[in-house]
Amino acid sequence: MLHMKKISRIYRSDTIQTHALRDFSLEVNAGEFVAVTGPSGSGKSTFLNVAGLLDNFDQGSYELDGVNIQGLSDNELSRLRNEKIGFIFQNYNLIPDFSLFDNIDMPLRYRGFNAAERKRRIEQSLEQVGLASRANYLPSQLSGGQQQRVAIARALAGEPKILLADEPTGNLDSLMARQVMDLLHTLNQQGSTIVMVTHDPDQARAVGRNVQVIDGQITDHSIYAPTMDNAPIEVSA
Ligand SMILES: Nc1ncnc2c1ncn2[C@@H]1O[C@H](COP(=O)(O)OP(=O)(O)OP(=O)(O)O)[C@@H](O)[C@H]1O
Ligand SMILES: [Mg+2]
Fold this sequence. Notes:
Bound molecules: adenosine-5'-triphosphate, magnesium ion
Oligomer: single chain
CATH superfamily: P-loop containing nucleotide triphosphate hydrolases
Strand content: 25-35%
Strand order of the largest sheet: 6-7-8-3-9-10-11
Radius of gyration: 18 Å
CATH topology: Rossmann fold
Number of strands: 11
CATH architecture: 3-Layer(aba) Sandwich
Low-confidence stretches: 227-233
Largest sheet: 7 strands, mixed
CATH class: Alpha Beta
């Protein structure tokens, strides 16, 4: 599904160069739920932004759902991103003046779906996150956890190949974080492929596969058994 090989991303300013990703290689298969952890500044968001075609890279190769993204134009990248990627950000990124319905509708309009198809997708995705009755609410009328669930609905409505989440519970208290995590686990069980950056070791442990990023590189791969206590069955460097 996601196939990155020796990706390097360097941010340059007049005085400094930051090697945000170096020889970063990762493969994520369809149906996996991968947690990405690592210290602040290690390159986790850079990885996710490159994976989500929001940022480009300097070296290496990246294949997304069988498409080699090298050499694609900005238009082609936008189209691919809209079709294949569902993004979930820490701060929800909802438009405050738009109802939940219109927030979810926006990227669907951009893709040119007709009104009936958009309505179907919006209603179905709000149903999936348990907010079907609130379609006409504004984001400010919801709790943080509910707003994040709207952001998840917006991602799902695009019927993406992969969900990319950057600290999706970072702004939430533990109860709301739990609800959002439960939702992500349910979506994964229903077939969604998910890559999630998290600072929370418990959240990481509860997920099928853990990847650690340090200094722009993957340093650790731990595959956990999907058991109740999440005991590791296999750890390889
Ligand atoms: N747009 C940018 N311009 C310049 N440097 C950047 C830019 N984005 C990220 N960096 C640098 O790249 C490195 C990796 O940043 P990144 O945001 O990927 O870290 P992170 O692991 O997500 O950290 P955090 O856990 O704090 O969110 C950092 O040194 C950061 O300062
Ligand atoms: Mg980050």
